[in-house]
Amino acid sequence: MKLRIEPVAVDCLMLRLFDSIDETHMPWLLAATQRLRETFGAALIDLVPSYTTLMLHYDLAQLDDDQARTLIHQALHHLQPASAGSGTLHRLPVWYDASVGPELPLLGERSGLGSAGVIERHSQHEYQVFALGFAPGFAFMGLVEPQLASPRLATPRQRVPAGSLGIADRQTAVYPSVSPGGWNLIGRMPIPLFDREQGRSLLQPGDRVRFEPVERGEFLRLGGDDTPFEVQP
Amino acid sequence: MTLLIERHGLLATLQDAGRFGVRHLGVGQGGGADWIALRWANWLLGNPLDAAVIEITLGGFAVVAEQDCCLALCGADLDARLDDAPLAPWRSFVIRKGQRLSLNQARLGVRAYLAAPGGFQAPAVLDSCATVVREGLGGLHGDGRPLADGERLHWRAAASPAPCALPAERIPDLASRALLEVVLGAQIGDFSGQSLFDAFNSDWKVDNRADRMGVRLLGPRLECRRRDMISEGIPLGAIQVPTDGQPIVLLNDRQTIGGYPRLGALTPQAVARLAQCAPGTVLRLAPLGLETAQRQQRQLLAQWQHSHAAASAPARRTA
To answer: Which of A10, A52, A58, A130 would best serve as a mutation to test chain B binding (most B beta carbons within 10 A)?
Structure first.
């Protein structure tokens, strides 16, 4: 880890910790996040982790640029990565099926693994949550095996149902709410990801996720919506 | 203590300062795009500066008072009328039961801010009632819907302060050509020298594609060497440059992370000014040193620290 600090706005600093996306970086980002929150206390407005960076938004009424940089160095001095088991491990049930994951057959064909092979490979891996963004509770996870990697759809869909599980390049994610989207959909997940009332997100940066294949019946029992995917022009 | 929304117009939303401490959950900021006008509207009524107000976009908006009260209007001149009498912005005013306040069409600026005593009532979602339509958060029902015809708004304070006008020297200048100051940073080193020259020495025109999420600027094509960028946090006012070379300034309803290279970010004051620039407006960008920008922002914030308008000298009051 080699830290670079750059201003990105009048009251925001970008902390660049790494140059590439790698699962082994997350324990460092997680540890840095905890230390920075403790050190800045009430002077911290927001801290946004994303793959290789942390964007730190501080309160200009309490700190200036020099003071903020000093606190950052203080917080990250002798930083040790969080232990390998840190970050909550979530086991998320998924009904992998072409009726709710219209790209499942396509990915099976492209990879030469068939739909069953895609399901097996996708559900074998433990994914890291690299960042939340795009929508409240939308967690970018990876890394998906290169064989399953697939570029985004050329034309994004206007409406992707909540719970849809998708792949884009080497990342995978579940849409927390209905939204437009261009990811390759392979299944649906019945557990709500973002609680609007409480403002809680099930998944947090640094968490780990395993997807567990379930049958339609179990999916419905868990509260899933099996409305088939609408075929759109 | 209610206002009845008779016509919601193009877009009218409840806004406060927005949501903070939640960006790592993918939750955006939201909040009044012209945060300076929002603060003045509250200040005129002696409200907490970030109390909930109505942000009215471009006009077509009307409310009817269901009791006497004092409201404040700041920001864009949207040809406001109290029944038939013209009403200039940057003041608080008495509206009687049964009177209609209409904001008809944009004469100067884009967004007007209507405040009520103590702030409008709305459920707090993540400590804010800021309406973010795309995220389905905030607003009158907490679900991100904009204000609709027939809805009734309540406010928090029982007492109404005496009406007054904002002193002329405090009114932001929305009429002269906008010079938007930029704190340089992020991927600025990856832009070509010519593009950096062009960015700060050319006229930029506000495109039709301008909303609370971002404002696209049309002008010379800016070239960035960097193509594949790893997504990172996006501050308010960030100037991102997609592959077509036409910058987009990201405002309150922006996404929390993104992967386009950036020149830096507008100062908060410049963000407020841009929020009042209608499509077709020609503006300029100017670099500003970080130290100066921080000093300037502190000075700007200091102007609200003294006592509010309702407690100030009677000379400021208007009939």
So the answer is: A10
